[in-house]
Automatic annotation (TrEMBL):
Gene: LOC107739104
UniProt region (Disordered), positions on chain: 442-462
Domain Disease resistance R13L4/SHOC-2-like LRR as annotated: residue spans: 205-285
Protein name as it appears in the record: Leucine-rich repeat-containing protein 7-like
InterPro entries: Leu-rich_rpt, Leu-rich_rpt_typical-subtyp, LRR_dom_sf, LRR_R13L4/SHOC2-like, Synaptic_Scaffolding_LAP-MAGUK
GO molecular-function terms, A-Z: protein kinase binding
Annotated GO CC locations: adherens junction; basolateral plasma membrane; postsynaptic density; postsynaptic membrane
Gene3D superfamilies: Ribonuclease Inhibitor
Keywords: Leucine-rich repeat, Repeat
């Protein structure tokens, strides 16, 4: 319990004001915070400041009903009452004509009153985790709305005039939305979160969202991506994980500003050659698909830093992958790779490389150029990040290769076996790199290194 003394003509923040230790009549309280106080009703004390109160926090209580007197606080600009037991939002909310931010998330509210339209200053509405089945038409008259969060609601459709919200920048609809047709009208959108829905298609008209930068469509039922997606010319992050995509349109190569592309856990059998046009791409994840090969144009991804293609059917890598010289983390776990191209030695910034569960017989000798390599995973039950490598002559070509006791790799027979590499997180490994041990390649004789006929031991030492 906190008792506040106030000097005249000075705005202060009051927290829990149960006692009246106030001097003077010109004091102004603009902010009150009653969060986490186990309240069952709105404290009557706040009504003493209904003319000056601008922010009210009632977070995480057990309030079931909002009194009418609360809506006499017409100076309110922010009303925060998430995680309560509210079942409805009274129509008297129309009185809060200066309200800019409203947070009613984690309650039991089933609908907005239509006269919410009177709160014309509203710019941020957080109403996630409520059983809201629909939005009233009046909601589309909130023309100053810039951020709207409706995750985990019961929405299936949006009002037909939803596109009138021309200032909307961030829209999150992680729930049961069936049709996003009206979204194309909101040309101002910069972030659109539609993950964890039941979407089966994305209309090509979404391509009209030319200002969109972040688009999350993960965990839906999307079978195809319309070629007009290329109209989203400002896209930087496109997340399509866990859908039913069988192919990507060639037009995806026109998303020139894309830095992150995730298409993992789909049904892709190939990647378009135009993937190489994504010159700014830094993170690319195509794991858990049905890819048998990668296009040679992948070598044009000069900005690529993280690349994952786990759990596919890759039998070889294109030689051009060596041109991805900025890659620091690459994971190719659970494929059918029998050999790696010599050009992989050009990827000199590699720090983490996962080759577990393949059919490799050895590694190319050019691996000795990977001076920054800090983790090399070769086996499903490998307990150490690095193991010693030594040179041998290939029995057929007589070329020098790198090998150890783990070669040749054999595919797993026990599908139920859970290994350490199943939870391998290359991004986490990259963050912890500085705390781990580094690798040093040492040669007994540099002259012998240049002599392909000699047999030089090249220990990979920790």
């Amino acid at each position: 319990v906190q008792c506040l003394e106030m000097t005249t003509k000075r705005k202060i923040i009051g927290r829990l004001v149960p006692c009246r230790c106030f001097r003077g009549e010109e004091e102004v309280i603009s902010v009150l915070d009653y969060s986490h106080c186990s309240l069952q009703q709105v404290p009557k004390e706040i009504f003493s400041f209904e003319r000056t109160l601008e922010e009210l926090y009632l977070d995480a209580n057990q309030i079931e009903e909002l009194p009418k007197q609360l809506f006499n606080c017409q100076a309110l600009k922010k009303l925060s009452m998430p995680d309560n037991d509210l079942s409805n939002l009274p129509t008297t909310i129309a009185s809060l004509v200066n309200l800019k931010e409203l947070d009613i998330s984690k309650n039991g509210i089933q609908e907005f009153p239509d006269n919410i339209k009177c709160c014309k200053c509203l710019s941020v509405v957080e109403a996630s985790v409520n059983p809201i089945a629909k939005l009233p038409d009046g909601f589309t008259q909130l023309l100053n709305l810039t951020q709207l969060f409706l995750n985990d609601a019961f929405l299936e459709y949006l009002p037909a005039n939803f596109g009138r919200l021309s200032k909307l920048r961030i829209l999150e609809l992680l729930n049961y939305l069936v049709s996003p047709d009206v979204l194309e009208q909101i040309h101002s959108l910069k972030e659109l979160w539609l993950d964890n829905n039941s979407l089966q298609t994305i209309p090509g008209s979404v391509g009209k969202l030319r200002q969109l930068r972040y688009f999350d469509l993960a965990k839906n039922r999307i079978e195809s991506l319309d070629a007009d997606i290329s109209g989203c010319e400002s896209l930087e992050d496109l997340l399509l994980s866990s859908n039913m995509l069988q192919q990507l349109p060639d037009s995806i190569g026109k998303l020139k500003k894309l830095t992150t592309l995730k298409v993992d856990d789909n049904q892709l059998t190939s990647l378009p050659n135009t993937i190489g046009s994504l010159s700014l791409l830094e993170e690319f994840d195509c794991s858990c698909n049905e890819l048998e090969s990668l296009p040679p144009t992948i070598g044009y991804l000069h900005s690529l830093r993280t690349f994952a293609a786990d759990e596919n059917f890759l039998t070889e890598l294109p030689r051009e992958i060596g041109n991805c010289k900025n890659v620091t983390v690459m994971s190719l776990r659970s494929n059918k790779l029998e050999f790696l191209p010599d050009e992989i030695g050009q990827m000199t910034k590699l720090r983490v490389l996962n080759l577990s569960d393949n059919r490799l017989k050895n590694l190319p000798f050019t691996f000795t150029k990977l001076k920054d390599l800090a983790a090399l995973w070769l086996s499903d039950n490998q307990s150490k990040a690095l193991i010693p490598l030594q040179t041998e002559a290939h029995p057929e070509t007589k070329q020098r290769v790198l090998t150890n006791y783990m070669f040749p790799q054999q595919p797993r027979h026990d599908e139920d076996y859970q290994s350490d590499s199943d939870s391998f997180n290359p991004t986490l490994w990259e963050e912890q790199r500085q705390q781990r041990m580094t690798v040093a390649f040492e040669f007994e004789d540099k002259k012998e290194e240049e002599d392909n006929s000699g047999k030089v031991k090249v220990p990979l030492r920790i």
